[in-house]
Write a structure and sequence with these properties.
This protein is mainly beta and about 500 residues long. Helices cover about 5% and strands about 55% of the residues. The strands form 10 sheets. The chain has a 6-stranded mixed β-sheet, with helices on one face. A 4-stranded antiparallel β-sheet has the order 1-38-36-35, with no helix packed on it. Strand 8 and strand 9 form a beta hairpin. Helix 2 crosses helix 3.
Length: about 500
């Protein structure tokens, strides 16, 4: 009888941990395990269709690779010593493999790109040098290093992957596309594009289709510097390049006097959608969403959709009294975090407000120091339907000092998972504020958006006396979201499905 009771208790580890929650997701926790190597810097986490989960982490001197089975028990571990000047560059996932890219800089002008391949099913690891390149002194091999996804892409069928490297010198700048066979890492072709000694190209995004055709998107500036203009017509145009082994085609996306900070490529229904935010004033502000619909075969603009943010976005952030005034001023300092496509062809765009402040901390005895504070605040959400029209828009009024949320689509619903204060605060003007008070503990929430954009605020758990999980270090695959705990040695997973 005792043995049956113990078995029942063990099985309860994978049973709903909070029966009182109103979220539509089933909530499970894995057994706790001991982590031999301390590392909080998670670079990649993915789950295969057969249920293997791979995690890539980084410590000061090593890269750490973990593989877990469908019950989230660790079945493989490998520690790889880093070169002294070897840095993470990006990652791709398809099928059973995570490809993880690093740049080694043995000299000030020498760069070597490595591809680390982890097969989660076979539990194997290999490291291959893809190419060596000479660069201008101390120059990076890839632009936009804080946004790694803009330089690497894999085709939907997994046959090809491509990367965009910089060729920037004092008197000339250009980029080179490298296209590889995903199975054997054979270089299929490379093409230089955007070569110009007067105009500066700022890379935004990259995509590759199932035929190995690459599309790159970026800004081309009228001057040899990325100077943004204010309250005037922008001094740049967006350029979409279509690159094959034999040819390079180009489409200049101009004819608009709107300021657009960046665009992302989204592909659906044999079309490309270039989506982002626009402003009437300058690139640092947001008035609404822009969607350029492209015919990839003809490389031509089929249609453009421009939508102002509805008043509800401002009411959620500032209350109904200030909403109209704030709308006239436009929003500021938002960075695109997620571009998610669902099975019906809808696209969701999520952006978070980010800025940095400094303040002086007086420590007494005529001493003190300057403190840097990072602000990860409000979130904007836009849903575009399959025709490219804005279906609905919403926002989350929040305050945080770390990037701490994640988002995924399950069925017809958008789920935004985040840690906030133990209790969400309802303001007198009806706004719901997600933030942590000074003496308040935290809780894990699921902000669930219906097909029509209606939101419900669902508490998953109070974090007091429970394991603290990190949603931003999570992955959604096979209709399941998995995130890791924050523990240094004792680790655990939460599963939402």
């Amino acid at each position: 009888m005792l043995q049956k009771s113990l078995l029942f208790l063990i099985l309860l580890v994978f049973v709903n941990i909070n029966s009182q929650t109103s979220t539509s997701l089933a909530i499970l926790e894995s057994p706790e395990y001991s982590d031999q190597y301390k590392s909080k810097n998670i670079l990649s986490i993915h789950t295969t269709k057969s249920g293997y989960t791979g995690i890539i982490r980084e410590s000061k001197k090593h890269f750490l690779f973990d593989i877990f089975d469908k019950d989230l028990k660790k079945v493989f571990f490998q520690i790889i010593e880093k070169e002294k000047r070897e840095d993470f560059a990006g990652e791709l996932f398809h099928g059973d493999e995570i490809k993880f890219f690093t740049v080694y800089s043995p000299k000030k002008t020498e760069r070597i790109l490595y591809c680390h391949t982890i097969n989660l099913k076979e539990k194997t690891y290999k490291k291959v040098s893809l190419f060596e390149k000479t660069v201008t002194k101390k120059h990076n091999l890839f632009s936009g290093r804080k946004r790694h996804h803009v330089n690497f892409t894999v085709s939907e069928n997994g046959d090809y992957f491509a990367l965009a490297a910089d060729n920037i010198k004092k008197s000339l700048n250009s980029h080179t596309i490298y296209v590889y066979n995903s199975k054997n890492l054979e270089l299929l072709f490379k093409k230089e594009y955007g070569k110009n000694d007067e105009r500066y190209f700022e890379h935004n995004d990259i995509s590759i289709d199932n035929n190995g055709i690459v599309y790159t998107l970026g800004k081309v500036f009228a001057q040899n510097a990325s100077i943004q203009t204010f309250n005037e017509k922008p001094n740049y145009t967006f350029s979409l390049n279509k690159i094959t082994k034999d040819s390079i085609s180009n489409l200049n996306i101009d004819g608009t006097d709107k300021h657009i900070e960046s665009l992302s490529i989204s592909g659906k229904n044999d079309q490309l959608h270039l989506i982002g935010f626009y402003s009437d004033k300058n690139v640092g502000r947001i008035k609404g969403g822009y969607n350029f619909i492209i015919d990839p075969d003809q490389l031509s603009i089929v249609d453009t959709k421009m939508h102002e943010l509805p008043i509800e976005v401002y009411e959620n952030l500032y209350g109904y009294r200030k909403a109209e005034k704030k709308k006239n001023k436009e929003l500021t300092r938002f960075n695109i975090d997620y571009v998610i496509e669902d099975d019906a062809g809808n696209t969701f765009l999520l952006a978070e407000e980010f800025f940095i402040t400094t303040n002086y901390v007086n420590t007494g005895n005529m001493g003190g120091h300057w403190q840097t504070v990072y602000h990860y605040n409000d979130v904007i959400i836009l849903k575009y339907n399959v025709s490219g029209k804005l279906d609905w828009a919403s926002s989350i009024f929040k305050r945080a000092h770390t990037h701490s949320y994640n988002a995924f689509i399950k069925g017809d619903e958008l789920h935004v998972i985040l840690n906030s204060g133990e209790n969400l605060k309802e303001k007198k003007d009806g706004r719901i504020k997600a933030s942590k008070g000074f003496f308040e503990s935290t809780a894990l929430y699921d902000f669930e958006y219906s097909k029509e954009g209606e939101v419900s605020y669902n508490k998953i758990q109070n974090n007091r006396a429970n394991t603290l999980y990190l949603p931003n270090h999570g992955t959604f695959e096979n209709e399941t979201f998995i995130m890791m705990s924050s523990g240094k040695r004792k680790k655990q997973f939460m599963i939402l499905k």
